[in-house]
Amino acid sequence: MLRDTLKTLLAAYGPTGSEHAVAEAIKSLLEGHVDSMRTDSLGNLIVEKFGSDEGGRRVMFSAHMDHIGLVVTHIEKEGFLRVSNLGGIGPAHVRGQKVVFENGTPGVVMLEPNTKGDGKQPTLEQLFVDIGAETREEAEKLVHIGDVAVYAPEFIALGKHRVAAPAMDDRCACALLVEMLLYAEDQKNTIIGVFSTQEEVGLRGATVAAFNLEPDIGLALDVTAWGDTPETKYPAVKLGQGPAVKIMDRSMIASPKVRDALFEAAEAAGVSVQREVLAFGGTDGGAIQQSRGGVPTGTLSIPCRYVHSAVETIDMRDMEGALKVLLQFIDRV
Fold it and tell me: What is the pTM of this model?
């Protein structure tokens, strides 16, 4: 079921700032299985499953719905689209890739030839999207300035356990949070599931949600980088070796009590976990931890190769292990 949930969420269009289709897919999966669902002013989908203990904690789990994209900045007279980035996407990631707009218009992304011969890296200003239009007027019937293209969705099975797709960051964690909400029963603490918006441009959705919800404890669910492919050995995280408990990244140093509760939950679940130290990047955890007077917060990560590419790759064994850890964590924290 975890794989089916993942496929459903990966198929939804949902770049930063336009996550509504992902939210609707999540609502359909959780309808009748939770105690409340609502959407706040920033588009965060907030789901609650009440705990059985009147003195229980309110634990906020956050997984972001948005993913990176290309926003149209202007249209040339020949019908080509010029674009800028939404989140961390650049020419090296997107050159030669298939993309799609919300209305279904497909396109391909290419770069101008480097005529200077200076050996410099290409820039976003040299990038364009070809949607098959021959004039500006023809293009404007299909796409407008401000529309956003994302990698065309494709789910690829790699071997027995691994899968690749665009938007794995962070739909795999959204799928994980959905499954946790479906399986959790009679837990003493209240689960607040936040499917957040605009993480890729500054943790904006989680910042607003944490401020309004005032959780006692926070846990971000996200992907992390990999260190198990040729010439890439850092961070010390490998696919198939279990989910990773974050020690720190650029946005936060994990609160020791939450971090240790994750290790205890993993031991109780019989799941091997990895220790993650990341010298770059951040997650919704950074926003939760600094909300109001501060919230004890950690992050559980899914190892993911080729982050922000069209073939973000995870191992389903890490996902299955993470679900077991979360189900133990909710009553141990």
Answer: 0.95
